[in-house]
Amino acid sequence: MKKLTIVVLVLLLGAFVFAQGTKDAKPADGRPTIRLLTDATGIDDKSFNAAAWRGIVEFYGDTVENPANRGNLYDVVTAQTQDMYIPNLRQAADEGYDLIMVTGFTWADALGEVAPQYPNQKFTIVDVDWVGQPNVMEFIYSEEQGSFLVGLAAALQAKEDGIANPRFGFIGGVPGSTITKFEIGYIQGIRSVFPNAVIYDYYANDWGKPELAKAQAKNWYDMGVYCIFSAAGGTGNGTIAQAKEYRAQGKNVWAIGVDSDQYTDGIYTGTKSAVLTSMLKRVENSSLMVLNAVADGTFKGGVVQMGMEDEGVGYSAANPELSASVRAQVDAAKTDVLNGKIKLYKTYKEALAAGAVPAGLAALDD
Amino acid sequence: MKAERKRLSESDGATSVLVVLMGFLVGTILVALVGKNPLNMYKALFQALSGYNIDNGRMNVRYIAETLNYSVPFILCGLSMGFANRVGLFNIGGEGQYIMGLTLAQTVALLGPQIPVLHWVLAILAAIIIGALWGGVVGILKAKYEVSEVVSTIMLNYVALYLSRIICLQLPGATTYKTANFPKTALIENTFFQAITHNSLLNNGIFMMIVAVIIYWFIMEKTSLGYGMRATGFNKDAARASGIPVVRSISISMAISGAFAGLAGGIVALGSFKYGRVLAGMDNYGFDGIAVALVGNCTALGTTLAGLLFGLLKNAQALMQGKQIPKEITFIIQGLIVIFIALRSALKLYQEYLDKRQLQKEVGVK
């Protein structure tokens, strides 16, 4: 009898579902609609996906805490496994969004397959420049520029602190061409001040293992390394944690943040933060730019280079302990990079051939 | 006494159905509690099941096909778990066997002879064989040296993941996350399916899955090998005393169990992707297979139905997110189902207690 009741309830529910068959009306205010597709880490990754999402939310005048138009003008679908990428792309295309956005190079192949099948659907992807479809706008960042600035800032600060022969560390996530740009730019920044500076590097092979970075950072700081830059997503939080511990104990060591301004993550007391500066990579600018392009009808396929000139990358001056003269010198270097006076390399191979970086780094070019 | 037992726990199949309904019921309540409309959850499930989008009245068979395609690895990993379980073993190594299958399939796909049909047949066979070896080793250790299969399979999962990375990084065109594209002869795509299902990922893997289900049923129910295995599962010592080769039963069952999971890996590698993946994390099909087998009572039919349910939930996940239902709800439903299934054993204990009381009463009255 009980079971029968349940079955009847379920059937009723089913009937109710059918009775509810109303069509979703498209918003009439003329603003474009967008769906963001992410990998398994979702929009709470405090990094890449979060930044893309932030840009979208900002475009519609909402805040991340209160995304009022979510589900109406924009939404997000997270793929739990990689075999969901293609189905999720097709599903989004079925549902008629003005724009479909994906983040990260793991999506490139799926997008390359789906985009030609929906020639009238607009797509956009960040950190990829090789999809090459007329309906895909691709954003690529000049990470080497921002990394150069933070490397320069760290080196100048060391000089100001009067440290003879300071040593520097770099912690990467999974090695690959994108992270290599971070490392090479950073080293070039340091070596423009200390041409023979010793550089250590380490790849955690993971974006989410802060304990690995923390252990490595402790090791290096104990050896006397002055500053460590981690471009490793969540893994890098371990470096910051270790730097916080040591600075609170009065040691003069620093961490450098990545992607977002991580100044507040590094605060150990009052306004004192262990994060000297952060290499800013404003993925949110891509979201804003592409949505504006859709809104005013200028969207077109192709690669958009996001660099220092349009504030796509940069460095953070949030930490008051980063001295004013260092800031002035870094800002001056910006101009030199932009007018080509300082040549920055994008690959380890090129940089090594030019003698700009030491041999034996763990960076990979593909 | 028998009538009493019937009233509480019915047959195993009916319990599973009841448990699934309970899982959905609690899931529905949870969705309502977080302030979302549970109807949207059912709309998404309905679309994943029938391809019909209630909101805009459009029908697209691709969604049915994707549900089927997602089910294939769930069912095969369920069979893997189920097969070992019937012999009284707990194979948590499905994930590792799946990963090894995937790895070998990718290797053969990239390096094997590019002869139509033969190429993918070799790749799939390689996946099955390595899965069988990966599981069989555990079986031998268990049977000969009493090494707990739970511990060794868990450990081998990690060995498989990192070994897979080492192997895949050596494959042609390997970067940090993918290899070169597979030659066409290695793919198990089905152009007929693609044509009738609007380019879904559904592929020939589904036929292999069906064959696997039949083989599972046949070995278990119709052969003396299967009889020996089930006898071993019921009572190892009794089986040994009756002249059943227990060591052989255990080794072979773990090998066959691993073969199913290996096949799942091969199908996902060649069916859902056109390039080899350098895995950064686990796909979790192997782990989910444990739940599938539990819900399906480790029978061929039950596991197939349970796998279809899990495939349905997975496909509905993306659709739900598009309707602003958190994707976690599908995991909660899956989790609840497993918990309720576990409760079944508690129910049995309670029944035994009731029976005892009843008996005592009857004896007392007399």
Quick description:
With about 375 residues, chain A is of the alpha/beta class.
Task: Give a quick set of tags describing it.
heterodimer; A: 366 residues; alpha/beta; Rossmann fold; 2 domains; six-stranded parallel beta sheet; 11 helices; 14 strands; 38% helix; B: mainly alpha; two-stranded antiparallel sheet; 4 strands; disordered N terminus
Give a verbal description of the structure:
The complex is a heterodimer of chains A (366) and B (366). Chain A is α/β, with parallel strands linked by helices and 366 residues long. Chain A folds into 2 domains: 31-141, Response regulator (Rossmann fold); 143-280 and 312-353, Rossmann fold (3-Layer(aba) Sandwich). Chain A contains 11 helices and 14 strands. In chain A, the strands form 3 sheets. A 6-stranded parallel sheet of chain A has the order 2-1-3-4-5-13, sandwiched between helices. In chain A, strands 7-6-8-9-12-14 form a 6-stranded mixed sheet, with helices on both faces. In chain A, strands 10-11 form a two-stranded antiparallel ribbon. Chain A is globular and about 70 Å long. Chain B has a domain at 73-298. Helices cover 75% and strands 3% of the residues of chain B. Chain B has helices at residues 2-9, 12-33, 38-50, 62-86, 94-111, 118-145, 149-169, 191-196, 205-222, 224-234, 236-241, 246-271, 285-295, 300-322, 328-365; strands spanning 52-53, 58-59, 178-181, 275-277. Chain B has a two-stranded antiparallel ribbon with strand order 1-2. In chain B, strands 3-4 form a two-stranded antiparallel sheet. Mean pLDDT of chain B is 91; it is low at 1-9. At the A-B interface, helix 1, strand 2 and helix 3 of A face helix 2, helix 3, helix 4 and helix 14 of B.
